[in-house]
Amino acid sequence: MFNFEDFNKLELTYKAAFLTIVSAMPSFFVSIYLFKPSLIGLVGDNPFSDIDFYFIISLCFCLSLTWFMLTLFYTQLLFDYLDKTENNGKPSEIKDVFRANTIIAVIYLNILILVNYIIKYDFIYFVIGAYSYILFLVLKIIIAKIYSYLRKK
User: Fold this and answer.
1) pLDDT in tens, 65-93
2) DSSP string, the chain
């Protein structure tokens, strides 16, 4: 499904990938701070010498990494779908599709934080809402691919 040739077209260096992952970390940290204050309460007065602080940072990094990988997977699916059905033979630029998807995904995370804060939901609802967004987009592309395949028959 994922093609490394298309990954090279992203012009995404390790540094840029790392910075993209790190740029989503504050959204997850804010969500933990707002929706799971008991976890933040474990951190002592000096956070840099407390193992719980590093656990929270590691959790934010892991959530950002999975968010990045799912966005990358969705970008590949969308790029493949756009090239085969929607673009009328014109090649689309995967790097532009990836940048747009990444920006939209981070904006979605921040809007979800606001909505969850207003509704007073818990951290679990935030995580479910965040990852269901990407999974919904993936399912939408898969259904569109199946529909276009069945329409051709």
Assistant:
1) 998 888 888 877 777 776 665 556 566 66
2) ---HHHHHHTT--HHHHHHHHHHHHHHHHHHHHHH-HHHHHTS-SSGGG-HHHHHHHHHHHHHHHHHHHHHHHHHHHHHHHIIIIISTTPPPPHHHHHHHHHHHHHHHHHHHHHHHHHHT--HHHHHHHHHHHHHHHHHHHHHHHHHHHHHH-
Sign of the dihedral through C-alpha 111, 117, 120, 123: positive
**What's the CA gap between 104 and 110, in Å, rounded?**
10
Least Cα distance to 91 among 79, 102, 77 occurs for 79
Domain boundaries, the chain: 4-152
pTM over the 0.85 mark: no
